[in-house]
Amino acid sequence: MPIRIPDQLPAQNVLLGENIFTMDMDRAASQEIRPLEVGILNLMPNKIETEVQLLRLLSNTPLQINVDFIRIDNQAPKHTPQSHMDAFYHDFSSIANKKYDGLIVTGAPLAMLDYEEVKYWDTMTTILEWAQRHVNSTLYLCWAAHAAMYHFYGVTRKLRENKFSGVFSHRVNDPNNELLRGFDPVFYAPHSRYGHIDTSLYNKADGLQVVAESDDVGAYIVASHDKRMVFVTGHPEYDPDTLKDEYFRDLQSGQQPAIPKNYFTNDDPTQSPIVQWRSHGSLLFTNWLNYYVYQTTPYDLNQLAEKPQPKR
């Protein structure tokens, strides 16, 4: 798959080692097609790890994709070198006049803060509104999904005492929805969150449909009828060891985290994780790119229509 990413981006060597096709700038420029323009607003502290995870999921399509990494502020990331941010990330102000076929907004480790307490919440709401005018389809992951629901629909998450952590079974509610094309009726996906929005609240929101959910963790994939917004409450992008790393990180910090459910062999943290979500994660991103982005976006992005404001 020809993902066009900046030269020297660390993710490039990782992806090449996994036999994933990436394209340098010179080769991409020689192709006489209009590539998809996809922005990634990366809110995770370990930017490089998240870059690899998302680029891997964008790889399973014949479409050429130009990727812009976007930063929400100039604060030095906790787990990413400042030199990396300066080399590969765009300040929002520098791309504010650009239009995108697709935008991915990642989760963030902000579970215990009210939205208005988040230091960049004002900028976040500006970007959410900007996406309504400048992006054909936006994919919100985990914290970002809840934040967008709060901003657009006034739906407030509840914080659970015990974290949803593990790999959970989900069912397809609407097998005819193109996002779920090729999905098994029952599939698995990782979750790692304290926040929760009851499925009934998604169902009451104007223009939204819960297309996949779980008896254990509730709504998983929620899509707008016009395909302009997708809310994913879990982490289809997670690597095999991500939940393991989170679990042992919390242990080492003095917390008493529950063992992630349905994840370690025999539920034993000393044994290997059981990986059973990556094929559906890849398929979800492929379907989003094809049916919610490529098949609906105008050839001339200047013709992109502004999305009407959701009705609360």
UniProtKB/TrEMBL annotation:
Instruction: Identify the residue position(s) of the site Important for acyl-CoA specificity.
Output: A111
Q: Where is the active site?
A: C142 (acyl-thioester intermediate), H235 (proton acceptor), E237
Q: Which UniProt keywords apply?
A: Acyltransferase, Amino-acid biosynthesis, Cytoplasm, Methionine biosynthesis, Transferase
Entries under SUPFAM superfamilies matching the protein: Class I glutamine amidotransferase-like (SSF52317)
Q: Name one GO cellular component term.
A: cytoplasm
- Pathway(s) served: Amino-acid biosynthesis; L-methionine biosynthesis via de novo pathway; O-succinyl-L-homoserine from L-homoserine: step 1/1
| Entry EC no(s) | 2.3.1.46
Detail which positions bind substrate: K163, S192, R249
InterPro entries reported for this sequence? Class_I_gatase-like, HST_MetA, MetA_family
Q: Which family does it belong to?
A: Belongs to the MetA family.
Q: What is this protein called?
A: Homoserine O-succinyltransferase
Which species?
Alteromonas profundi
Q: Lineage in the entry? A: Bacteria, Pseudomonadati, Pseudomonadota, Gammaproteobacteria, Alteromonadales
Gene encoding the protein: metA
